[in-house]
Amino acid sequence: MEDFNLHYRFLNWRRRIREIREVRAVRHQERYKRILVDGDILSYHGNSDEVGCYMAPRPLTKENNYFEVCIVDTGVRGTIAVGLVPQYYKLDHQPGWLPHSVAYHADDGKLFNGNGVGQQFGPKCFAGDRIGCGVQAESFDRGMATVFFTRNGKEVGSVVMAMSPDGLFPAVGMHSLGEEVRIDLQAEWGLDEDDSVMMVDSHEDEWGRLHDVKVCGTLLEYVGKGKSIMDVGLAQARHPLSTRSHYFEVEIVDPGEKCYIALGLARKDYPKNRHPGWSRGSVAYHAADSDDCIDAAEVKYKQRRVRNIMYFNDEDEEDEGEDMEQEYDRKKVTVFFTRNGKIIGRKEAPVPSGGFYPTIGMLSNGEKVKVDLHPLSG
């Protein structure tokens, strides 16, 4: 009889362990409704009359107390909310609408703290903006959470709320067609001692020069006036191409009003208000001159002989004479472009002193491109 009792208790113990593991497995699964999840990309997948919501698989912790969302596309209404919710939050409600949740809403800049009436909190947010949300580390020791929000690396404000027993989970809400964001659940948040500016990983360090172009991860968006030929927005990589890193890829996410997008190579001191290909020391492919500028394009650079030309300029109305010749090495390289995997043009070009730098130019409102400066193959 005693052996039977021990065996029975052992079976109960095993069953209890299995139940605990099953509960933990459920707790570590992300939950979402009317949201399409593709890696770190979240997009609205409803019919705009019902809310879609995504909830991360794990709550924020003292060690991982911050996450960030980059708005890729605001869609029809831009009704994107970023915040924190309890574990069993109803996913047909925006974060911040129900008790024990809080969220910053991009479309009106309001903070919703546990009810459907928001309070003016910060600026509205648009495509390319980064919204961050975190809990101050000391909050985890006292049961009351000080939740703070950021926009493009700067703190917007904070609010104090009760810490849910199961923790506070990162959440993103959407409510109109076309809305899309990129979520980074491992984003870091730290205080810069020099100017007290909060810093986050935004890929901006990959770019040596940015003029009228906003960076959000790998997404570049034109933010200039777009009214005249002098309103070019320019993004130039920090490092030149080399034999080890000899090409980069560009995907046109949104052609904007006129698709005045140019991608190519240029010298380091290239004029900021000139498309690559327009001035000396540059070569570029201009999407507006292609049949369909919405398709992906990529640019490659290798040392080999070819013919043909895209946009190439080795003459400059402002810089002529022997001094300019000293800017160039004797070496020449072949620059060639592909579209959808097929070569569309090539040109042998003298290499400027310091090398050729990946350069993107944009000139009309709404233009957005994704850039991969370090593809795995090519």
Description of the molecule:
The protein folds into two domains: 30-199, Jelly Rolls (Sandwich); 204-372, SPRY domain (Jelly Rolls, Sandwich), CATH 2.60.120. Helix content is 8%, strand content 42%. The chain is built from two helices and 29 strands. The protein has helices at 2-27, 322-325; strands at 31-33, 35-38, 41-44, 52-55, 66-74, 81-85, 102-105, 110-113, 119-120, 130-135, 144-151, 154-162, 169-174, 179-184, 190-191, 198-199, 207-211, 213-216, 219-222, 233-237, 247-255, 261-266, 282-286, 297-302, 311-313, 328-339, 342-352, 357-362, 367-372.
What value does the average pLDDT take? Answer: 80
Largest sheet: 7 strands, antiparallel
Percent helix range: under 10%
CATH C-level class of the largest domain: Mainly Beta
Number of helices, counting only DSSP H or I runs of 4 residues or more: 2
Radius of gyration using CA atoms only: 26 Å
Percentage of β-strand residues: 35-45%
CATH third-tier fold name of the largest domain: Jelly Rolls
Structural shape: elongated
Q: State the secondary-structure class.
A: mainly beta
Can you tell me the CATH architecture of the largest domain?
Answer: Sandwich
The CATH homologous superfamily of the largest domain: SPRY domain
Low-confidence stretches: 22-27, 191-202, 292-311, 314-329
Q: Tags for this entry?
A:
single chain, 378 residues, mainly beta, Jelly Rolls, seven-stranded antiparallel beta sheet, 8% helix
